[in-house]
Amino acid sequence: MSQIRQQYDEEFRKNAVKLSYATSKTIKALCHDLGIHPSLLYRWRKIYTEQGDKTKLAEQNDNLRKLQLENAELKMENEMLKKNRGLLCEKSKVKYELIRSHPQYPVTKWADILEVSTSAYYDWLKQKQKRDRKELEYITLVNRIFKESENTYGVDRICGCLRRCGYTASYQRVKRIMDKMGLVSIHRQRRQRSLTDSRKSKGLDLPNLIHNLNITEPFQVMTSDISYVRTAQGFDYLCSIKDVASGIVLAQSMSDNMKAELVIKTIKKAKSRWNLPTGCIHHSDRGSQVRQEVA
């Protein structure tokens, strides 16, 4: 078991040095009388003179140590000022958050630089810990309600459950929590928008001309399709005519609507560009655009 190191005050050290110069005893004998180790007395003699004053070497060491401490403090203040740049005009909460995120620097030093009170900071820190615990409980409850709903509840329904449990429920707060945790109701999943409504053509006589047809030549059959492109103003509609045998897109047209005129315009463009032969079959779905009489 290691022994507790004994501490000697400055007055004792000075008197021990004076005795070592004034007495006729050896250093070893004097140290035995004083109850100290000879190495301690030799070390003290390098610090104090016969009169008990500091030696020049000791004074130089003290000055050097003082300069090192001042330099370290200035360096620390410089680093803190860099991190603090532009924060003096911010609210106290922002300053407190900066102090909390840099525990390597003394709080008192931060308080002087940021011009805040240390007691106010510690009060804020205590309240923040309470708020963090409550926020964690709130997040856990939101997650539990969502899981118990089998991933079906959205923000509104979770807000209702929270209010029935006695909690305040802000739509934006619950939405932020759900977005952060990646909780998305299965009812919110985006479904592909269909541009074809063939229900009205079920009773019409529209034979499939390519049924069991062996397509081997270009321009034997061409097919058309309409897709939509999302824009900042809404949707634009792109009609494409493609040759089935070669896969080449024969023509394309775009419009802000998907009426029959868009299909007719694209077919005419393909015919004029490729000189489509007589008997070329235009195969398409049974959408309203290609059922029009004008088509």
Write a structural description.
It contains eleven helices and four strands; from the N terminus they run H-H-H-H-H-H-H-H-H-E-E-E-H-E-H. Strands 3-2-1-4 form a four-stranded mixed beta sheet. The termini are far apart. The longest helix is centred in the middle third of the chain and has 31 residues, at 118-148. It has helices spanning 10-22, 27-34, 38-45, 56-84, 92-101, 107-114, 118-148, 155-164, 171-181, 260-274, 288-291; strands spanning 221-231, 234-243, 249-255, 281-283. The chain folds into three domains: 10-84, no CATH class; 124-188; 199-291, Nucleotidyltransferase, domain 5 (2-Layer Sandwich), CATH 3.30.420.10.
Defining key terms:
single chain, 295 residues, alpha+beta, Nucleotidyltransferase, domain 5, four-stranded mixed sheet, 4 strands, 50% helix, disordered C terminus
Shape annotation: elongated
- The name CATH uses for the topology of the largest domain is Nucleotidyltransferase, domain 5
Task: Report on the biggest sheet.
Answer: 4 strands, mixed
Report the strand count: 4
Strands of the widest sheet, in order across it, are: 3-2-1-4
Distance between the termini: 103 Å
